[in-house]
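Researcher: Hi, I'm a grad student and pretty new to this. My advisor asked me to get structures for two proteins we've been looking at. I'm not sure of the right format, so I'll just paste the first sequence and hope you can take it from there.
Model: That works fine. Here's the first sequence with its structure tokens right after it:
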Amino acid sequence: MSVDVAVVGCGIIGAAVAWRLSRLGLTVACLDPAPGDGATHAAAGMLADVTEADFGEDHLTALNVASARAWPEFAAELSDATGADLAFRRTGTLTVAYDSGDRQQLRRLLTLRRGLGLPVEEIAVDDARRMEPLLGPRLAGATWTADEHQVDPRRVHAALLAVLADRGVAVVRRRVTELSLTPSGEVGGVVDDRGTRHRAGSVVLAAGWASRELARALPGLAGVPTRPVKGQILRLDASGQPGFTLGRVVRGFVQARAVYLVPRPGGEVVVGATSEEQPDDRQVTAGGTFAVLRDARALVPGIDELPLTELTARARPGSPDNLPLIGDSGIPGLLLATGHYRNGILLAPLTASALAARYGAGTVPEWAAAADPRRFAATVTGGPT
């Protein structure tokens, strides 16, 4: 097989990139042994450009805001192309504080976010309870972000696979074990776990945290410092409980621990998530499950009566500064689209647009400069090709 671009990894990032590149008229293949079974499978789908804004992450917040603005068009185009319902909707986010210490943290974040010009307001606890009557009796503070959206990542990914098939993009269900070099030192394809060589004019590495493993063997590449950050997430079923109704995403702090509940159409409630700096073992633990449920029920006690339908553990692809790596790697022929950490679903449209601009116009847009992978390089070998 020989294509213009081989995309390694076919989660939501790799699939979105492959879609956009195919629309440029490029021949594209996407290689992944289990497309969408990584972080995409576990993700809650909060498009939380405001409520994810944190201290020291102004560049990331700017990327998140830009990508959130791109989501309505991205969702509409994907739905129009496939007829799929992506469960993309504006629900807003209600963030609550459990005790006085949590209220102080919430107000610090409120000040930060207002200072960045983000639309968020402090509201009275009584007003929060009127918005969501299922909130528990012990709350110390609340903020409201009206314009945040959510989407179902599994539906989005299924739609992306459908549109890739329609556009003739090959989805190769094999694990890539090696990035292959041409005699001139450029990346010119990949080798899979059967030893099959897939030639390509260039390669986009979108393999989540495992991107570092593939990049490590390349001479002259100073680093792709992605790492696994395990998250355990739960799914509950409220469809048989007519008295249990959440209309908005509920996030909160419980004695300094963050937790969220995301209501889905049809009665599903996604609850998460742990954040564990350890290998991608996919093992759901009693401690992780207890921690998530303990904090969620502190905010919404009514979840006690809901059936627990799914426990999932996956590794998010973290980076040292929590910014993704988008663009040229410094090795000719190799581009990166990885390291999105907690924001892979949110940043999918922006990442795909940035890579499409790189292939179409020859450069990644200036607005994506903060995500340049070469910021981690001690030396830069080569340049954009």
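Researcher: Oh nice, that was easy. Here's the second one.
Model: And its structure:
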Amino acid sequence: MRKYESCGIDCSRCPVYVATVNSDEKLREETAKKWSKEINLEIEAKDLVCYGCKSGQTWKMCKDCPFVECCKEKGLNNCGEYESYPCPEISKFLKSLPSDFAFLDQVYKERFPD
């Protein structure tokens, strides 16, 4: 089952979320090693705990997500529901996540048809 957050990321495809909800320590370890190497930042497996952005239990890199706060202030489920979507911030963030951008585009088109 897909679980989309404010920014359009599908948590059901996120290894941190999957490892957390499935108590998968091997996946948590593998993800910590991979991400530490990719972003050149020491990440410990024990810190990779996340139940989704809106749960209040996210890992430190997502703790102060501006998209969650913005959607909360505007009473939206995700950025695609915003009449001025896409804002410069979400555009920049999603450049490397085209499938997540596609979800938000779909939401926007359904909410604001031409």
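Researcher: Is there anything I should tell my advisor about the second?
Model: You could mention this: The CA atoms of residues 9 and 90 lie 11 Å apart.
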